[in-house]
UniProtKB/TrEMBL annotation:
The keyword Protein biosynthesis does not apply. Pfam families: URO-D. Gene3D superfamilies: 3.20.20.210. The record marks D84 as: Transition state stabilizer. Keywords: Cytoplasm, Decarboxylase, Lyase, Porphyrin biosynthesis. Homodimer. InterPro entries: UROD/MetE-like_sf, Uroporphyrinogen_deCO2ase_HemE, Uroporphyrinogen_deCOase. PROSITE patterns: UROD_1 (PS00906), UROD_2 (PS00907). This is Uroporphyrinogen decarboxylase. Residues 30-39, 147-163 form the Uroporphyrinogen decarboxylase (URO-D) domain. Belongs to the uroporphyrinogen decarboxylase family. It is an enzyme of class 4 (lyase). It is found in: Cytoplasm.
Length: 362
């Protein structure tokens, strides 16, 4: 990472998130939550009243306000850009909506060559609202780093091909194995679009980048490596020159972690199904050349509803496991559920900051 004068890093050299991502030991264990903005916050529900999800993402003042809400409330060590993995697709004209309680819904699912015409490259001006929002946000955030993000090609393809959320990704996988040329073209286009979306955020001031391959865990290692990894690697490689840490996350990816690090991650995001030290050990055992493995995770979000003493002990368990790895960014294993109590999340942050450092042994 650049330490040259005038860069954000040298303005704020001690941001714990960036230190941990580089394998150094910050004064406190950094913590943020996937989906920390959103429906669990009453102040979010208030400002979103009468405005659709996608419309809200196109309004820089609103994006700034919503992104800042959890930062104000929780003393988290990072902000995550309020947007959605579908936003770049919307920006190039794909007819889609985000339906409350359901998720992304595509008007004309992509099933053949003809459907691919919906996916043109990002053009000059398409993402100006993203640049404006990130610049506005970064000016407000001060020392707290902003994490930019995008959906990985596979996770986006799953929505585009299925037409909406899916349990088994049957049509997506059928295309992947049955129509490899079509699949390749789809994935190449998505890699270019998402790389542009991510680059735009980092160039406007985001200081870390997360690739969400939320549904990659549904794949076998062989299929992941043959049909998905090259495109995720293209996205992660496509921002490598920008010098920000890259976080690579998916759900249920215990068997894919080595491949996901190989695709280009500086930090590997892990869900609750595998302890953080076991995750890091797997990567180290398979790839001695990757350098220090840094992990992000991995409290089971469902446990946020448990009585505090029980939950606190689980938070400490995550900190101890992360403490056996050279770098740990505390997070949930997936997003904050809409039903989560914000006061509970505030207590988790307090606990991570108060006890995290002393529970680290690595
Ligand atoms: O705080 C944050 O994490 C920042 C914002 C963020 C959103 N979506 C806002 C959002 C991020 C990082 C995402 C990424 C995203 N979107 C992913 C990857 C992360 C993951 O959870 O695995 C995925 C798969 C999507 C697609 C998507 N968008 C889903 C599944 C949903 C939920 C649908 C629902 O209503 O239950 C959305 C909508 C969405 N994206 C909301 C928010 C705050 C809720 C919509 C609302 O408030 O009306």
């Amino acid at each position: 990472m650049s330490e040259a004068p005038g860069t954000p890093e040298s303005d704020h050299p001690t941001a714990p998130l960036l230190q941990a991502a580089a394998g150094r030991e910050p004064d406190r264990v950094p913590v943020w939550f996937m989906r920390q903005a959103g429906r669990s916050l009453p102040e979010y529900r208030r400002v979103r009243e009468g405005i659709s999800m996608l419309d809200s993402c196109a309004r820089p003042e609103l994006v700034t306000e919503i992104t800042l809400q959890p930062v104000r409330r929780y003393d988290v060590d990072a902000a995550i850009f309020y947007s959605d993995i579908m936003v770049p697709l919307k920006a190039i004209g794909v007819d889609l909506d985000i339906v409350p309680g359901t998720g992304p819904v595509i008007a004309e699912p992509i099933r053949d060559e003809r459907g691919l015409a919906q996916l043109r490259d990002v053009a000059e001006g398409d993402l100006d609202h993203i640049t404006a929002a990130v610049q506005m946000l970064v000016a407000e955030l001060g020392p707290v780093p902003l994490i930019g993000f995008c959906g990985a090609p596979f996770t986006l393809a799953s929505y585009l091909v299925e037409g909406g959320p899916s349990k088994d990704y049957a049509r997506t996988k059928a295309m992947m194995v049955g129509a490899p040329r079509l699949w390749q073209e789809l994935m190449e286009r998505l890699a270019r679009i998402t790389t542009a979306f991510l680059r735009t955020q980092v160039e406007a001031g985001a200081r870390a980048a997360q690739l969400f391959d939320s549904w990659a865990g549904s794949l076998s290692v062989a299929d992941y490596r043959a049909s998905v990894m090259p495109y995720s690697a293209a996205v992660l490689g496509g921002i490598a020159d920008l010098g920000v840490p890259r976080i690579h996350f998916g759900v249920g990816t215990g068997e894919l972690l080595v491949s996901m690090v190989e695709a280009g991650a500086d930090v590997i995001g892990v869900d609750w199904r595998i302890p953080l030290d076991v995750a890091a050990g797997r990567v180290r055992a398979a790839r001695e050349d990757v350098g220090p493995v840094v992990v992000q995770g991995n409290l089971d979000p469902a446990l946020l509803g448990a009585p505090w003493p029980v939950l606190a002990e689980r938070v400490r368990e995550v900190l101890r496991a992360g403490g056996r790895v050279p770098g740990h960014v505390f997070n949930l294993g997936h997003g904050v559920p809409p039903t989560a109590d914000p006061d509970t999340l505030a207590r988790v942050v307090e606990l991570v900051h108060a006890e995290g450092r002393s529970l680290r042994s690595a």
